[in-house]
Write a structure and sequence with these properties.
Blueprint (H helix, E strand, L loop, with lengths): L1 H4 L2 H5 L16 H6 L4 E5 L2 H8 L5 E5 L1 E2 L8 E6 H6 L13 E2 L6 H12 L9 E2 L5 H9 L5 E5 L2 H7 L3 E6 H4 L6 E5 L1 H6 L1 H19 L7 H11 L3 H5 L6 E2 L5 E2 H13 L20 E2 L4
Parallel strand pairs: 5-6, 5-7, 11-12
Antiparallel strand pairs: 1-9, 2-9, 3-10, 4-7, 4-8
Length: 294
Amino acid sequence: MVAADRGYFRDAGVDVQIVTFQGSANNQIPLLARGDVDLSPVVSGPSLFNQFTQGFRIKLLANLTSPHAGYRDGAVIVVRKDLWDSGAIKGPKDLVGKKIDASAEGNPPDFLMRQALLSAGVDPDQAGLTHKARTPSDSVEFLRQHVEEVTVMSEPSASQAQAQGVGVRWLGYQDVIPWYQETFLAASEQFASSRSADAQKVLTAYLRAAKEIDVSGGKWTPELLATAAKWTKQKEATLKAMGGLMYFSPDGTIDQGALDRVQQFWVREKQVASPIPATDLLSGPVRQVKAGGS
């Protein structure tokens, strides 16, 4: 958003045509695999790893968002307010027997919820985990209508639920999986291989914007707020109510160890049948990686 508004793609010498989409970044995997789009944000869900066994080779160029102290997490577990006020839920072990929804299976909110349960030694089946919500507003309504007792949702919906007195923001990535990298900038196989110079230009423009955002220290500035409202169609007041920004990695470094750790989790959950080396997901000409995942 920032790079587009400030002309950074143009400055880098690349013409970027931006299209918007609804729903999880998981939905972009088929479009990237077919080459319908050249670049898109993606998440490290099962579909990212499974696309290799289907004959596709989507490549990751950079990390976009990840947990970081002083910044808002992109997803938060929210407890229905009456249960929170009664003290019925104080820790992940209290989720046993509760009605829980984690939105679309395999997306970052689902991963957060599963990891919270895992931290308490709770099996998802014990916790009655479901995946019925299709939009963040569904998750809010599930709490409001007492359909669910706990949901996990992305921002700004989690903050909206709290502001409306429907739920209480509880656990985010920083509380449960601080090593996690939430989203990545990915390229189709064709774009990464045949137009690697243009991929590098896009990455250069993106990182220029990410470094400028980092200067804000996680606080909304009038300029950033205006840009976010313009592109997301959210009111500035709604975005401001989040309390701050998510952390956009200023150098885009991909944590290879964390990526493999996520894949191994989905293997254990039997949602990834044929694990691949994490390095296979990284684009040779532009990749930035580090070992880690601790």
